[in-house]
Amino acid sequence: MAFSQFTSEVYIYDAVRTPKGRVRRNGGTLSGVPPYELLAGLLRELTRRGLDPEAVGDTVIGTSTAAGDQGGDIARSAILWAGWPDTTPGGVVSRLCCSGFDAIGGAAARVAGGVEDLVVAGGVESMSRVPMLADTPAFAYDGQLQDRTGFVTIGVSADLTAADHGYTRGELDAYAVTSHQRSLAAPDSPSVIAVQADDKVLLTRDEGARADASIETFGQLPALFADDPSWARVARRLPDSVRPDGGLHTVATAPQLADGACAVVLGSRKAGDLLGLTPRGRILAAVQTAVRSPRLTAALAATGTALSRTGLTPGDLDVIEANESFAVSPLLLTREFDLDPATVNPRGGAVATGHPLGASGGCLLVNALDELEARSAEFGLLAIPGGLGLGAAIVITRN
């Protein structure tokens, strides 16, 4: 398990994101926007909001599928497209669903260690243009590697985890309905920056949330992973495990595919003072961890470590942004840490509005900051499980 506890203060000077655009077969709202433009639009917005690009020491961007339109260092491409200085460096990190967490945590560690005074971190994923597995990873196609490592489809991991912990199909469906309701009720945010193309506004709010979401409607949907062939590997690795009869997660309780980007300005107190920046918060700890596939529980381990490193208890947390990597993920985190459900994803989440993979870490950070500010509250937690047993957590504070 890798973690960073920042003894030197790391300030969040700004955090912005695009709305999340739903991926559709016939072309989603943001499908015509290249990922370098999704990200570049946020870099230009940061400049409009008072950031001096000349002061940025580095730019670190998380991208899960660094191929096609997202290959070849999309961070540097976005910097040049945005008109930032030619001397501004940029690079990409890839840790599947945890990529954005890696970018933010790594950038924070560099600020805390005195390597840089000001770093922009974030993520981008255009799943319309670069679908999952477009980079043909060995774990998805190499049968020998799959058999040795126990790789399974992440939806099978979600179903297995839900069954292990006693969740029913009805509980998962009910959670999804709540996510849709909260997403629809979420207030507009100045941190969510409209996406424009050719002087036309394409999207101002997250897409995907349905006003007609109901337990009855969701209950009629077929399970996605009941007949997935990777259940055979579960049986070999965990012979005592219980395969849920008929499956548990559906398209309603799985994270929606989405396009989006985020950008977070992290820096030292010295940088903020020199540039006249007002902090919105601080990063207290960042954790990356993993469990052996086929479990989908690494976010629990990451959360426990992040809390212990900061000296906080679950009761100290005012807002929790737990990525809805299937409905079981936030439900399990809420139960295991005895969290108040009202504080977990109060603005809805990925089963309603989508999971743009590498951008999700920054999207969760933006949501958490917005909600902490709205509540005049102090501590927030971000948590996410990912493919191949990965997981991550970040603890932030407004003070």
Give a summary of the structure in a few sentences:
With 399 residues, the chain is an alpha+beta fold. Helix content is 34%, strand content 20%.
* CATH superfamily caption: Thiolase/Chalcone synthase
Report the helical percentage.
25-40%
CATH topology: Peroxisomal Thiolase, Chain A, domain 1
- Note the total helix count: 14
> How many β-strands, per DSSP?
12
Question: What proportion strand?
Answer: 15-25%
- What is the number of domains? 1
- Class per helix and strand makeup: alpha+beta
Tell me which CATH architecture applies here.
Answer: 3-Layer(aba) Sandwich
Note down, in words, how this protein is organized:
With 399 residues, this protein is α+β, with helices and mostly antiparallel strands. The chain has a single domain (1-129, 143-399), classed as Peroxisomal Thiolase, Chain A, domain 1, CATH 3.40.47. It is 34% helix and 20% strand. It has 14 helices and 12 strands. The protein has helices spanning 35-48, 74-82, 99-112, 138-141, 143-149, 154-164, 169-185, 215-219, 231-237, 269-275, 298-310, 328-336, 350-353, 360-375; strands at 2-17, 21-22, 58-62, 91-93, 118-126, 195-197, 200-203, 258-267, 281-290, 319-322, 379-385, 390-397. A hairpin with a 2-residue loop joins strand 6 (195-197) and strand 7 (200-203). The chain is globular.
